[in-house]
DNA sequence: AACACTTACAACCGCAGAGGT
DNA sequence: CACCTCTGCGGTTGTAAGTGT
């Protein structure tokens, strides 16, 4: 050692920035199977190019099954205000009193809404002089002029009045598969979810094993197949494949050929072809495309499935484009997506053909090393 | 339409404390 | 008891998206 504290990880060797669905899936699948006894060792064992800290944060704040997503209720906000009054910036302590809420989330809500709202109340009741005083503790950009009422600030950011729903401008593009699923399989999805209670339980944390004996490389194919078909109840994927008369074992065989064994390059490349962000799943949940607003308790199934649907759509080339099948309506200069489902999508033969094309694409794995980009 | 500004949130960073050796 | 590793916490930053002009 020597020369001070060792860094938690080699920054040059780890990926940073937003997590991709592929990474999320890897992390979820690993923790589902092996628990998280040792965060430092987890990334390597799970085949993730992240530092343990990043994995922990992602799990705690976003992927954990019991994380409660969506709007803070007025009661929760009141609780935060009261607890902050007595505890100060002890976000983890405050979070412990709000089941399903993370310290990070509470901290963000406080800094972006509650602090300003309180400042506004102060200014209302005590006048301009006190307002200026309170603003000194806010961000430098804050001012009584720039401050807007909470309700207005929330537009389009998942904090809307539930009765009004998401603002159109922020509403994610409803993909073709989602359209199809919404119209044909949502009811059965809910039924299926009830059949698979274990996959959304809080059992992740309880799955503690000897991490030293974890051998991810020994079961790569099982892992991806779990990801595709079992984890989070990807019944939609099943439905789509069945509707297209595609034998599941065809896909299984193709997936089995993928170079999965802790192959960083593969996962990096997968991210390149699955560029959508995980927030989409959250947004879907918020917008009601996924039943319910609680991402962590049950809806993680559908939200994660939606991510996979988008991925598959991307692979199948079925995602609607602006030119082909979306109508854009402008409100206040903002483009709003109004999905239009083309007739052709409902043709299952087409879906099958597109899927076969995707399978042909998979046959080109692994891609050339030059195509890998960090 | 384009640009600048603002907002919200996910992710990162550094530090402190607990626990092991 | 000193040192080390690991985890968790709180502050801060980066960035996507909304808003204003």
Automatic annotation (TrEMBL):
Domain Myb-like: 11-63, 64-114
PROSITE patterns reported for this sequence: HTH_MYB (PS51294), MYB_LIKE (PS50090)
Matches recorded under SMART domains: SANT (SM00717)
InterPro entries: Homeodomain-like_sf, Myb_dom, Myb_TF_plants, SANT/Myb
Cellular location(s): Nucleus
Ranges where the record places region Disordered: 120-216
GO annotation terms (biological process): regulation of gene expression; response to ethylene; response to iron ion starvation; stress response to nickel ion
Domain HTH myb-type: 11-63, 64-118
Key word Repeat present: yes
Bias-annotated ranges (Low complexity): 137-146
Signal peptide annotation: none
Classification via CDD domains: SANT
Stored PANTHER family: MYB FAMILY TRANSCRIPTION FACTOR, TRANSCRIPTION FACTOR MYB72
Protein name (database record): Uncharacterized protein
Native organism: Liquidambar formosana (Formosan gum)
């Amino acid at each position: 050692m020597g020369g001070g504290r060792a860094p938690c990880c080699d920054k040059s060797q780890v990926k940073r920035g937003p997590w991709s669905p592929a990474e999320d899936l890897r992390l979820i699948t690993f923790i589902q199977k092996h628990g998280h006894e040792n965060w430092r060792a987890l990334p390597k064992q799970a085949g993730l190019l992240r530092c343990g800290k990043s994995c922990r944060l992602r799990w705690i704040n976003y992927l954990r099954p019991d994380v409660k997503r969506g709007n803070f209720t007025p009661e929760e906000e009141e609780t935060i205000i009261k607890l902050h009054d007595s505890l100060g910036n002890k976000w983890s302590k405050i979070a412990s009193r709000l089941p399903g809420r993370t310290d990070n989330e509470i901290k963000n809500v406080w800094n972006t809404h509650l602090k300003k709202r309180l400042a506004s109340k102060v200014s209302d009741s005590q006048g301009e002089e006190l307002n200026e005083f309170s603003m000194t503790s806010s961000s430098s950009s804050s001012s009584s002029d720039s401050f807007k009422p909470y309700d207005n600030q929330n537009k389009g950011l998942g904090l809307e009045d539930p009765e009004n729903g998401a603002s159109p401008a922020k509403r994610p593009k409803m993909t073709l598969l989602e359209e199809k699923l919404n119209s044909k399989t949502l009811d059965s999805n809910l039924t299926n979810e009830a059949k698979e209670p274990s996959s959304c339980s809080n059992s992740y944390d309880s799955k503690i094993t000897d991490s030293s004996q974890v051998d991810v490389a020994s079961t790569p194919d099982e892992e991806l197949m779990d990801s595709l078909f079992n984890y989070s109840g990807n019944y939609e994927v099943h439905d789509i494949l069945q509707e297209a008369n595609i034998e599941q074992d065809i896909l299984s065989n193709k997936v089995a050929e993928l170079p999965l064994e802790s192959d960083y390059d593969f996962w990096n490349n997968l991210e390149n072809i699955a560029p959508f962000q995980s927030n989409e799943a959250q947004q879907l949940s918020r917008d009601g495309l996924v039943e319910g607003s609680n991402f962590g308790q049950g809806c993680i199934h559908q939200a994660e499935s939606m991510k996979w649907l988008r991925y598959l759509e991307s692979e199948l080339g079925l995602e609607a484009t602006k030119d082909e099948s979306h109508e854009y309506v402008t409100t206040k200069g903002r483009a709003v997506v109004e999905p239009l489902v083309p007739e052709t999508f409902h043709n299952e033969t087409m879906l099958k053909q597109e899927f076969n094309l995707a399978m042909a694409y998979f046959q080109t794995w692994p891609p050339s090393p030059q195509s890998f980009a960090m």
